[in-house]
Specification:
By secondary structure, the protein is of the alpha/beta class. Helices cover 51% and strands 14% of the residues. α2 packs antiparallel against α3, α6 packs antiparallel against α7 and α7 runs antiparallel to α8.
Amino acid sequence: MKTVFSIGRIFGISISFHWTFLLLILWIALVDFMAGIRPEEIVWTFIFLISILLSILAHEAGHALMAYYFGIRATGVILLPAGGVASIPSLPKKPGQEILITLAGPAVNLAIAAILLLFVHPYSAYWFDPENIGAVNGGNFIFQLQVINLSLGLFNLVPAFPMDGGRILRIILAFNMNIVKATRIASILSLIIGSLLILLGIVIVQVLPVLIGLFILFASRAEEYYLQLKTIAHGVRFKDALMHDYDSVDANTTVMHVSAMLINNHSKFFIVMENGNAVGTIHRIRIIESIAEMKYDVKIRALMKPNLEFIDGNEKVENYIEKLASKEERLYPVMDHNHFAGVVNFQHIIEYLLLHAASSREYGRIKSLAGLG
């Protein structure tokens, strides 16, 4: 099941959203419906949704900028209802720097909330006015945006995954134990907090605590899953786990010519090559659609997705686990000394780990993590 959907790129950083982000939109729509929203307020709801998106991006920008300050560049951001996840290929060796990177996100939201507070007078009166709790309009927009940023800042300090507080707890625990055990303890606490929120929502008959609780339960399991894979993949570099027998097509080949190979080839993605270099990728459905539209003479170059995201062969696999897992079948070209060396995807990495751990005690754990038994 696809869980992450791409939006685009900003300054070279890929921006995606997790499917649970749709729950936030659903919740806002439900609140508006129950409040009997007027047609003119739909515009304010749209502006509010964009503002929430920007607030979450600001949160992740805080992480990314602090990481950049320590010489680490973020490669991607996945938006979540309670914030997001910045994909940072390598973490600083000093725990104090990692804590600062983690705290930078909530700090940005709290700073925004503090600035917006200057425009809401008297602040306490807004909380007791029923008109301000519910559908967004021109009179309560700044107040609600202030509450959202305050909530993002404070909620992300809760010691549960995937919030920043859960990561900070893991860092602190790792001072006295290994990272795997620290993650397991933080995950157990996350499960407890998530379960309590679900129970609270049932008792008070409110949907939001249940949704947040389910979100925490889902994310905490994913956090432990990714860490176990990272632990198993420790020390493996991409140049050691390349696929050399990938399926490729020439950029100047026509759709008609490529269509013949689809009959006996069931690959979903193909690397598009030109003069020995990878220049793009194309999904088999894109080729089939072109055949159905009778675009037989169209060249693959016109249909491919350019701007490939290359991975350096010397990069460690463990630093890209989440990125690869978010698009399990997507092929990533790997460069070795500025030359195209091969491709990788998440499924191949799992197979590589299975093959290289076939005679070790790790085999059963990898098999289980991969959902193979």
